Amino acid sequence: MTHTTDPTSGTGRQSKGAHAKNGRDGKGEHSNPAKGRGKGVHRRSFLGGMAGVGLGAVGAAGATFGLLSGGNDKASAADATATLTIPDLATATTTDGVTTYTLEAAAGTNEVLSGVTSTTAGYNGSYLGPTMKWTNGETVLMNITNSLGADTTVHFHGAHIPAKMDGGPQNAFADGETWSPTFEVKDEAKTLWYHPHALGTTAEQVVHGLAGMIIVEDDSDVSAALPSEYGVDDIPIILQCLAVDTAGDIKYNVTGYLTSGLSYPVLCNGVNVDSTTLGFTATKTRTRFRVLNASPADIMTIQRSDGGTLTQIATDQGYLAEAAEVTTIRLVAGARAEFVLDLADAVTLQTVVTTGWIRGGSGTFDFLTVTPSASDTPADLPSTLNTITRYDTTDFTARTITLGQSGATMLINGSAGTSMSSMAMISTTLDAEEVWTIKNSTQLEHSFHLHDVPYQLIEINGEEPTGVDLGWFDTYEVVGGGSIKIAMKFTDFTDDTYMYMLHCHLLQHEDEGMMASLMVTES
What we know:
Layout: E1 3-4, H1 18-21, E2 27-28, E3 43-47, H2 55-61, E4 66-70, E5 92-95, E6 98-113, E7 116-123, E8 132-135, E9 139-147, E10 155-157, E11 178-179, E12 182-184, E13 190-195, H3 202-207, E14 212-217, H4 221-225, E15 234-241, E16 243-244, E17 250-251, H5 254-257, E18 266-268, E19 271-272, E20 278-282, E21 286-293, E22 299-304, E23 310-315, E24 318-326, E25 328-331, E26 336-342, E27 347-354, E28 363-372, E29 397-406, E30 409-412, E31 425-429, E32 433-440, E33 446-450, E34 455-460, E35 472-473, E36 475-478, E37 483-489, E38 500-504, H6 507-511, E39 515-521
Parallel strand pairs: 6-9, 8-14, 15-21, 20-28, 29-32, 31-39
Antiparallel strand pairs: 1-2, 3-4, 5-6, 6-7, 9-11, 9-12, 10-13, 13-14, 15-18, 16-17, 18-19, 21-26, 22-25, 22-27, 23-24, 23-26, 27-28, 29-30, 32-37, 33-36, 33-38, 34-35, 34-37, 38-39
């Protein structure tokens, strides 16, 4: 028995673009999310021993399974006295034109469930990591020490840097070692993030807290016209939905997710918001929010509790051509977006959580109330934020990338990427222009991420993109049975040893094999 999502529901869709029109009409691993307002129906349970292992495996076993939603509406009981935690800014030193950051990945503890201590991990702390600010054109040196007791990597998600410095599986380093990649920041203003990316352990390490935001700044007139004072009018928001048992143990694989009695708490900057609405006092009339969905699998849709609009200014890979008024911003696992609010009255931000994997969260959560305390009058936003020249793909090299599965094993182009030798490899050359059709041959939800370069959406389930979907991306949703067509140009970097990755950013799918390598060589 399979379950479908509601193709007619507008919940969780961006208000502009073809993506907004394409209901999730593919069959998936999960059923309709609860649509209640306020602290939501967020606990889910499967019946059936093979539930969600993969439709192929379930079919082979002849198992049947169902989804139940539970929990209480907690909106009226929400505590709005807790203040939003702002991640520290990473301290950097600059010598001879090189900006150096020092990070240590180590174990810690954090209350993922309120009142329950969980074993976690973080960078330079017990959970999550500091925000790094990079500047376009500067040279960065990262000194990253592994104190985890296991191999790790640190991938700079969305950054356009050499493959040898990208932090993919080939860059794994052992406990006690320090990895020191260095590179020039070629990216323009955007929001990136960093997290582990070793083979088979990405989900485990990320869900335990190894993640942090990167803000890239540039000297453009547009950037100068936007809020940029970190923690004052430029606010990082890291959202997560995790799977946790009553003892606080954070789950990351099939065995863990099939444990009975799990909760699926929602965290904002590391703080549980299941029954707490965090508060932020805006001392400037216009505030910029950078939102990252750092969940392993679940989808986060950002909206206002009053149904008002958000002024979206950026997608994964930088500014939109112009600001867009949207009512929702849908972020699959690994995706980011930026928006601004000009406030005269308090606004509560919500996230609608949609289960992305075999189990997960669901419901609507008030995670942040923004209360204005400002008297300034900001200038109008720039009428043009970015010049985005749409690709003419007539002469682009075409490829098809097929996302598949064999039982519980996830595949790309028929190969399981559980080792560097077993995964499929895409070979291309410097300055190659390509258009890829990412075809989802499964009935599962996927989140397609490409390392190295940004891409444009050319088609979403056969329709041309509009609105915010005309921006630049590195991570995008591919619904069950659906497809996206993307176009990109491979610039600047070549290597005949180190490879970039392309994969599903549902971290469990990545660990289960839905990853391939990309080698860019001289033409």
